DNA sequence: GTAGGGTTAG
């Protein structure tokens, strides 16, 4: 037998006389020799040599041999679809096998739908119809592009061709229906299979895991066991993934012991699935032990470990994993960015993003952009957010639901509601997250009625609201004083929409009622709650008490809140402010003393402003910023000119015991939002809007000052505080002083 | 001589 290395050209016997496939034995020997060579090809060049030889010897006109060559050209690891098509076109009479091979090659190629056109060609150009081998390829293509209508048509055709009950066809259909999101049809197909095999079960289990029902997957696995179907590797992977998603360490451990006890051969994918289960369930020790034992590791292994440390907020270890990776890919970078972004560390996320941009040969993908946009939204990095938006346009990145929602969210949270609206209108299809993002954007900008309109339009578009949608709608009602509307929707939430209200929804309604002054009603609402009122419910009531200066109720709400969260600094500060507002300075000082003794610190006021892509932060009373002298100079100038126009500082906003009037005024001027606005006045030119983000609620005096600056300096000022946006223009604020 | 199900980042 000839042997060849990949580097050497093949040396083939020449058979110039071979022209008839039905020729005597000597030639048949040679043909089987050639076919064995085809099987041992390791690159395209060798295959082309054999192809040429077959044409020369006439062996290519033998349908079996030609099909063999074609199959390798279309399916091997060095396959080339272009070349395979040329081979196919040379085959005089392709048989059913040849057609199926071409369909298969296209179905698993970059454009799976092309397999459908090949299928149509087969039906019209040949005497062959689809058989039980054809359908799994076609159905796989339908699954790949998630086309339910295509899947359904193929299902119908398979039934007509009498192969609808074939277990391979049925299993492909289950997978296809899951990937199109039609879980009911998948289940129906499953129940109709007479002799379910392990793949039937696996398709169901992994389908449920991937579509967000890991509990159902575990249920099915138990049923599978009770029916004595032997689990395979793929079953284990699916079940471990379900354990990871449900954080079921106990069951996950049992699966791992089963694997060990039964000496199941643990391949890389299975080991990775075990690793993922351990990390997601928070057992980094088990994960590390397994990781150290693994002989082979791929990027999934490394990224799973990285994420494991990130879950425990051990960012140093996570970073260490990224650094140790032999070949870092985009998934690993994304894992670190999103870990920071989702744990309230948006600045760190942005630093990693900037570092990623310096890497060569790593292309950003949709997930990178979604995580980074979310970080931009948190810190108010509008310029970077805009840059990402133009990157998306420039690189023709598709606006899927995730990217669309992230853009809407970023623009809304960075204060550019118009851009958020533009993105929303520019897309044809919107899912519940896209609609909810837009409703949330309108809510934080105080466009309550428009948010409600959106909520109804969403339903006209046949998109069902979820819990997040309702939170955003209630938030919109709250900022616009739409009490009746919120109450009505809250009543309908469960009865008409089938969504059980969660604690955050209760807190929203308390906020709606309280803000509008219906304090007693809010109390009654809390008393009637079917679940124990959470800290956020009492916090909402307390906030309302501050607005409406209800001291006794505030004390009650605060007591309950502190029972649940004894170290809630915001509650202490709110109560102290309420005391101050009512002139109860003794209580103020008692409370402040209590905070001092217990070491509880008020979160310092902090405002930030983005100038040329850099975020500048100002703390209240800041003297850290390199420009702070100039900023204070500007502030004095501004206050003087405002005073000349009738402004009087609101001393009632000074919520500490300060006797001297002058000191009180100074303390007001230390507020971080004033510093940031003045920095904006120094560093930017009209008509550019000044955009400031504050971590706490904006104070009343700062609110008045911002209104006056917007008029006297003819500048638009946009402030995002902890709860909402304030657009200051021509001496007015978009919140109509209701916040 | 042909087939179906698998792990990481939103």
Automatic annotation (TrEMBL):
Pfam families attached to this UniProt entry: DYW_deaminase (PF14432), E_motif (PF20431), PPR (PF01535), PPR_2 (PF13041)
Residues of the DYW domain: 646-739
Chain segments carrying region Disordered: 1-32
Keyword Secreted: no
Polar residues bias (residue ranges): 17-32
Keyword Repeat: yes
This protein's UniProt keywords: Repeat
Family to which this protein belongs: Belongs to the PPR family. PCMP-H subfamily.
Family annotation (PANTHER family): PENTATRICOPEPTIDE REPEAT-CONTAINING PROTEIN
Protein name per its UniProtKB record: (rape) hypothetical protein
